[in-house]
Specification:
- It is built from two helices and no strands.
- The chain is rod-shaped.
- It has a domain of about 90 residues.
- With about 140 residues, the protein is an all-alpha fold.
- Helix 1 runs antiparallel to helix 2.
Length: about 140
């Protein structure tokens, strides 16, 4: 298959529709990541507060407190990375959808519109000619 004969119409539409699906997916992932990490953060915060409320901590409880504090720091760093990734995917997909539709409109749809306009004008002329011929015959 020659490169010049590739069906770019379908390619531009595929890019645009794929990016729109990616917009919804990344927006859902962004909200889901935020919600999940917020719940985990709150649960760890509660565990830390319960352990800090005790007056004399045993060795195991001190280790649990340190574990929950380290886990809280990991949650913060992971949340920022994953939400940032979702945000970048969202931005990329918005630009991809815009470029897909713009390319489709610029490279293909303008010529299709011109062809339809030409065919419509031609059909109107043929109808007017046929009407004149019918009126002449009667």
């Amino acid at each position: 298959m020659d490169v010049k004969s590739l069906p770019t119409d379908n390619l531009y539409k595929f890019i645009a529709i794929f990016c729109i699906a990616l917009i919804f997916t990344s927006a859902y992932a962004f909200v889901n990541v935020y919600d999940t990490f917020s719940k985990n953060y709150q649960n760890n915060q509660i565990s830390i507060m319960e352990l800090e409320a005790k007056t004399d901590l045993k060795d195991l409880e001190k280790k649990k407190l340190k574990f929950f504090q380290n886990r809280l720091e990991l949650i913060d760093s992971d949340k920022g990375f994953l939400m940032g990734t979702c945000l970048w995917i969202l931005i990329f997909s918005i630009f991809g959808a815009i470029m897909g539709f713009r390319s489709w409109r610029k490279n293909l749809q303008i010529y299709l519109d011109m062809q339809i306009q030409y065919e419509t004008t031609l059909l109107r002329f043929q109808v007017e000619t046929a009407n004149k011929k019918i009126n002449k015959d009667t």
